[in-house]
Amino acid sequence: MSTIDATVQTPLGGPTLPQERRVVTAIPGPRSQELLNRKAAAVPTGVGHTVPIAAVAAGGGVVVDADGNSFIDLGAGIAVTTVGNAHPKVVAAVQAQVAQFTHTCFMIAPYEGYVAVAEKLNELTPGDHEKRTALFNSGAEAVENAIKIARKFTGRQAVVAFDHGYHGRTNLTMALTAKAMPYKSGFGPFAPEVYRAPASYPFRDGLTGPAAAAKTISMIEKQIGAENTAAVIIEPIQGEGGFIVPAEGYLETVVAWCRENGIVFIADEVQTGFARTGAWFASEIFGIVPDLVTTAKGIAGGLPLAGVTGRADIMNASHGGGLGGTYGGNPIACAAALATIEAYEEEDMAARAREIGEIITSRFAALAASDARIGDIRGHGAMIGIEFVDENGAPNAALTGAIAKQAMSEGVIVLTCGTYGNVIRFLPPLSIDNALLNDGLDVVAAALAAN
Ligand SMILES: *Cc1c(COP(=O)(O)O)cnc(C)c1O
Q1: Atom 5 in ligand 1: which residue has the minimum CA distance?
Q2: Is the whole model's pTM more than 0.85, yes or no?
Q3: Could you tell me the distance, in angstroms and rounded to a whole number, from the CA of residue 233 to the centre of ligand 1?
Q4: Who's near 224: CB < 8 A, 6+ residues apart?
Q5: Ligand 1 contacts CB of residue 241 (under 6 A)
Q6: Is the pLDDT of residue 6 over 80?
């Protein structure tokens, strides 16, 4: 299918793919359509896709399909290939490890890669207290384990999640997730002792951080009781729910209240972690130190790995053998994570994320001056959301979908999100160059003007 030589790599990662937008067929082209037909016959409809293509290569800032179309990647596989697709350091580390050993099961025969990733996460996550890290395979699995750990430590059962929250698709994480369609509808019953509190959504609730926190805290005190609450879990910047940045003072107030009440505060940094927001972790932006942090997505350049990192006393409260999993902290994924983290450090990718954020934000701020449908521009670093509204300020999901669809047909991958489906989320790989980024934004701006 592919004629791409994946053995030659650019310094930015990936095979030497021309860093260009190139649409040479209708989308999908014939070869992509062939694969999509096979997909429809082999894979259930529940597993959807955003872009109707057969991907064959990716690197720098592009994804190339089987028909030779080259798409500008503004989604990074949902904030996963933050370091760049097939980054040369990651490729080399994976190749070396896969030839050494592929699996022993860390619970059977431990190995250094796992311990080294744990040491790195203990060092990089917010706070200089003593920490421990346990590794898993997916964001949802990390979240499930963070809840297990918090319940064991506190001896309490209730867990508080938030409006607009997203934490995964397993049973417990569906219960934690706010949105019915497409994540929960018809998939219940859900795990018990999960409660939903109001969050801070400055564009829609107009509340200051302390005022929004007072609502959150009052709900927990009245409906659950602090003494029954094991954990509060929140994304410091809500991802799937709409790239919602809480008002200043919100998270600080909730964290302080949790601390006073012996409640474990869990920051779900699965989407916001690893240089994405221009900091190692978004918690740093708000000056909070979570008790536990869950990580995944950007951790290992695309290989499946996830972590729970946090206070040693909380992490160590689980009995021996109580935590783990067959594949958790797989040696190849750990090798990829160590190479990825090294690349973030050496290439100062957090600074690059801030530059990318500047470019996107200033571009949309200029457009917003003459287009009232741009209701809000928000985010940090290379995690920027644009919320679209109609003339009454109501969510404009139709426009959002139309923009994404047109951009896709013109060779740009853009993702949408939001409780109301009216947010375009920009999550480019940090290896994208400015020319490509600007070309991608031109296409999105033209799609906005045309719809
Ligand atoms: C994606 C995501 C998850 C779930 O991660 P999976 O690897 O898909 O299980 C959990 N929390 C947040 C904040 C996420 O963005």
Answers
A1: 139
A2: yes
A3: 13
A4: 158, 160, 195
A5: no
A6: no
